[in-house]
UniProtKB/TrEMBL annotation:
Protein name stated in the entry: UDP-3-O-acylglucosamine N-acyltransferase
Domain UDP-3-O-[3-hydroxymyristoyl] glucosamine N-acyltransferase non-repeat region per the UniProt entry, residue ranges: 34-101
Gene3D superfamilies per UniProt: Hexapeptide repeat proteins (2.160.10.10), MurE/MurF, N-terminal domain (3.40.1390.10)
Chain's gene name: lpxD
InterPro entries in the cross-refs: Hexapep (IPR001451), Hexapep_transf_CS (IPR018357), LpxD (IPR007691), Trimer_LpxA-like_sf (IPR011004), UDP_GlcNAc_AcTrfase_non-rep (IPR020573)
Keywords noted in UniProt: Acyltransferase, Lipid A biosynthesis, Lipid biosynthesis, Lipid metabolism, Repeat, Transferase
NCBIfam families (UniProt xref): lipid_A_lpxD (TIGR01853), PRK00892.1 (NF002060)
Amino acid sequence: MEHNHFFPPRDGVSLASLAAQIGAELLDASAGERVIRSVAPVYRAKQGEICYILSRRSKDELKTCEASAIVCDKALKSLIPDHIPVLLAASPATAFALAGQILFPKAMQPVSVSPTLSGVSPAAYVDPTARLEAGVLVEPMAVIGAGVEIGEGSRICAGAVIGEGVRIGRGCTISAGATLQSALVGNNVIIHNGARIGQDGFGYAPGSRGMLKIVQIGRVIIQDHVEIGANTTIDRGTMDDTVIGEGTKIDNLVQIGHNVRIGRHCGIVSQVGIAGSTKVGDGVMIGGAVGVNGHITIGDGAQIAAMSGVLSDVPPGERYGGVPARPMKDFLKDVAAALSQSESRKQKGGKND
């Protein structure tokens, strides 16, 4: 693969220095002066690149690996070819993530369309009543509404719309085409392209003349260090607030309904839908395409398998899966029983239902 001109290799950092910065042990000290310029997957890593492995399933990929170093843990150290230096780490994924941040710091934020811009572009609109601290960047075609407050070092990218009275903290990035209204945003928040924050929640009352719209007068509160993916929507509350807790990471194409409260340091994967007034605890992980019913509680540290349908409360620390979602051991038993019945019918010459 040719070098990616969007994120070209950097000047480089010595392997010894990189090991120290990511908290890994370089087993071959004589390789400490090797220069690392980029990251790569195991199977095509070349000189000047670093990669990592997490399981023995990567063993075959090592046959074509020519990396300048591999990050792994003690259990996998014996798999690494002798000619490739090992960076031993208790958590290889964390160490590799830190290495990527060091090598490609610009890739940690959405790419700017105006990398040389300082201040407010003359092609943007900023209402005279808006208050922008020092170092705020506003790119072309962005719109900043009345009474908006934006903290130092934040960037409002091309075509973003910041509605009246919205407050955005320091060090934030609001990416191209995103819209924010009725929202309070903390510090160091990243909102990716096309996200919709603070629009009406889905609330109607059936009547003799059809569906009557229920007023939605709450807010969206996004705490510090949250990241929200492209084209994700987060509805404002009906009368209370929709809250996204500190450090939570939300993937692309997620729908979060009104009055939902999500805890700290959660991970929510693409195409998840969370219905209104659900409470999600701290450290919860929700796999892709999960549907979560409204007015339920998912306890701290729970994990929900991809493609599940969560209809009722999930206790703290539990692993649930399936439709309806149930404890993982029960779900796996049900799957095994269904497969066994299907195989039995095949052997008897029956047809699958």
